[in-house]
Amino acid sequence: MSKSEAYQLKYHITPPQGLLNDPNGLAYFQDQYHVFYQWNPYGTEHKNKSWGHVVSSDLVNWRRKKAALVPSEPYDKDGIYSGGSIVHDGKLYLFYTGNVIRDDGSRESYQCAAVSEDGEQFRKLGPLFEHPPGYTRHVRDPKVWQDSEGNWWLIVGAQREDLTGDALVYKSEDLINWSWEGSFLEQEHSFGYMWECPDVMRFPENDVFVFSPQGLPEEGDKYRNPNQSGYIVGRISETGQFLGELSGFNELDRGFDFYAPQSFKINNRIIMFGWMSAMTEESEQAVPTIREGWVHTLTLPREMVLKDGVLHQQPLRELQLLRQDGVHGEIHSRGQWTLPSLAAEVVMRFNNQSASFRIVIRNAVLVDFDHEQNSLTVWRTNWLTNQKEHRRVVLRHPLAELQMFMESSSIELFVNQGEEVFSLRYFLEDTTERSMRFESDSSEVVFSMYPLQRSID
Ligand code: FRU
Asked: How far apart are CA 391 and CA 144, in angstroms?
């Protein structure tokens, strides 16, 4: 069945059919950006995972390629799970986890590599190393980088036998022989039951360890989704240990739907994509696009900037290439307008924000700014329970700007140039509704609105 307009996403990376999850293998290779993603081409359940593949010359217009990796070998027969990539000696290397389900239902995992000379055909190189003792079979999602001395480092998410999460670090001089260097974190810890999708971002002043710990208990406004993704700031030592404190763990996204992000570095920019979902399996199976045979999307690419020890996520400047003719205006206290398209960008600037306000999007999503608390709360109606639910954050600085990337069934709301981001999916019954309302006692806002369109599909 084809995708209907009602919930289709026009400028995000979605699967042609089936289920998409994590971004994988992000790379710039032979003059093209490559994004791979977890993909079940045969259905909308979490099985048969392969690596879907799209390429682009500008990071916003994408072309589909055939699946890059599919299960085929004894060590990956039940799924090509997540991982990263590197470009070396004119070749693109992919690292992934081979998932194997034994006859008795128990699982095995293997950290594997594959290589390509043209960015299209990949030759599997097989498993790279054994796992150390003291860990369960939940070891997955390898990510590799090179240090300034030319050494290769690989981190992988893991679960210890006492059912706590961890990340392991390996070192290699040739990408073939890997030695285990211990736990990635120097600090003793017990933080969730499994760490998925570890990643590092190396900035000139600091290193950042990003990972997705499962099973953190809810704490006020924090950790409200089933699983979290966040980061700590520190430094990678010469022996490959991350020196940083888990007490500084900070969630990357404040919305309902964000998980398993991955980054890559190109021309000194660090660019990250996430999976725009962190829903329970029940909510996932109730997503209306399941009836059309597909589900989920990646987030937009975000440029990562480390400012005062806080990761900022700025919507990639290349996204401006999608803008069509804009509408510009001002609102004093109250106003209502119609979105030019269901695929649109809305930028709102506030000068000396001195009052609370609310923005009502398509009569469905509410963005509530509380001036006294300097907090933002985003409300949506859950499509499974029909209940209203919210996520909230207290801002670090006065509110100066909101930038919203809207689609027929998603919103990414960037606050103060990426100081905070809320990502969410939502599904309206009246899919033609295009109203937006601004309500306050005395706020003044200058806005710009652009329909967004990509040039190839
Ligand atoms: C995260 C994750 C990864 C795994 C992949 C399987 O969403 O569970 O840990 O490699 O998805 O699709």
From this structure: 33
What is the distance in A from the centroid of ligand 1 to the CA of 131? 18
Residues designated as active site: 22
Answer yes or no: is the C-beta of 229 below 6 A from any ligand 1 atom.
no
Q: How far is the CA of 64 from the centre of ligand 1 (A)?
A: 22
pLDDT digits (tens, 9 = 90+) for 247-297: 999 999 999 999 999 999 999 999 999 999 999 999 999 999 999 999 999
Number of domains present in the structure of the chain:
2
Question: What parts of the chain have a pLDDT lower than 50?
Answer: 1
Q: Which two tokens stand for residue 60?
A: 């916003």
Give yes or no for residue 22 CB within 6 A of ligand 1.
yes
What's 430's domain CATH number? 2.60.120.560
CB 303 less than 6 A from any atom of ligand 1: no
Q: Considering just the CA atoms, what is the radius of gyration of the chain in Å?
A: 22
Which residues, at least 6 apart from 114, have a Cβ–Cβ distance to it below 8 Å?
Answer: 68, 69, 93, 94, 96, 122, 123, 124, 125
Q: Which of 301, 317, 333 is where one domain is finished?
A: 317
Are 60 and 114 found together in one domain?
Answer: yes
pTM: 0.97
